[in-house]
Automatic annotation (TrEMBL):
The lineage of its organism: Bacteria, Bacillati, Actinomycetota, Actinomycetes, Kitasatosporales. This is HTH cro/C1-type domain-containing protein. Residues 1-20, 84-103 are annotated as: Disordered. It comes from Streptomyces vastus. Gene3D superfamilies: lambda repressor-like DNA-binding domains (1.10.260.40). Coiled coil: none annotated.
Length: 103
């Protein structure tokens, strides 16, 4: 019986610095940030799509790490998610959507 099947994986430093590897990581972080904020708000993908002026398939593609985060897309989703967007490449995850503080 094996335990922690994938817990021992180590990514070599040269792979972590590869542009394709970093781009995939950004897409995954972005996908998770959208999903987390949408879930916190209790919204379906259809509701977020409606608020963002996008199709439900677009939102699903984003949440499946299939879309590169662009500044325009971040702004569009931050507005729809009633939040601010935080990007910090020094941290993991790099992306977060944070609700606005009550005034």
């Amino acid at each position: 019986m094996s335990s922690g099947y994938h817990t021992g994986w180590q990514v070599p430093a040269e792979h972590r610095e590869d542009p394709a590897y970093r781009a995939a990581g950004r897409r995954m972080d972005f996908a998770q940030a959208v999903y987390d904020r949408r879930s916190t708000l209790g919204w379906s993908t259809a509701e977020l799509a409606r608020r963002a002026g996008m199709s439900e398939e677009d939102i699903e593609s984003i949440e499946e790490s299939g879309v590169d985060p662009t500044l325009e897309l971040l702004e569009q989703l931050a507005t729809a998610l009633e939040s601010g967007a935080r990007i910090d490449p020094r941290t993991s995850p790099e992306f977060r959507f944070e609700g606005h503080a009550a005034a």
